């Protein structure tokens, strides 16, 4: 793919995700626009993980569209192709399952997903762990935030080994998040 084609695909993806998430907000107290999150995940892959594979980057921009919006697999297939659909599908939870079962499935599936999906999922967990420390869902107790960090660590155990820079960045982000939560107990 030429760099012009890649830029075009990138812009189509960011516009598509912005439209699909247009009425959604993150769960933090400031109700940050949802689109900030997929952009952050794509940026983490590119800048920190040095992942410059456009299928993974476009997958990151679209990673919550199947799970959280009315987007269909056909739309993704038609606009972005089968490889992007494959990676987005791999990081999409089955919302028909009860939440606790979905959380367990993420732990079980992590070691078996593709290299692209592992890196995407790892960047997603890095961003969410950072948010749990710095802009957590409002009304979450400390215990719930700690449980989220523990659960993410179990998922990430199955994602390790494909991108050592992202592995190390997750470890540092988790350690900072635990320190921030510990500080909030002691004040
Ligand atoms: P949810 O899946 O409901 O919420 C976390 C998800 O919300 C993230 O993975 C992220 O997903 C998205 N998100 C949106 N905004 C933010 C933000 N500001 N910061 C971080 N994430 C955000 O989590 P659960 O209800 O499953 O809770 C997590 C843990 O807490 C589990 O281990 C569960 O067992 C435990 N729990 C504890 C309770 C308690 O009261 N102690 C009650 C319920 C659960 P994405 O990137 O996909 O948008
Ligand atoms: Zn996400």
Automatic annotation (TrEMBL):
GO terms for molecular function: guanosine-3',5'-bis(diphosphate) 3'-diphosphatase activity. Residues 34-129 form the HD domain. Pfam families: HD_4. This is HD domain-containing protein 3. PROSITE patterns: HD. SMART domains: HDc. InterPro entries: HD/PDEase_dom, HD_domain, MESH1. PANTHER family: GUANOSINE-3',5'-BIS(DIPHOSPHATE) 3'-PYROPHOSPHOHYDROLASE MESH1. Signal peptide: none annotated.
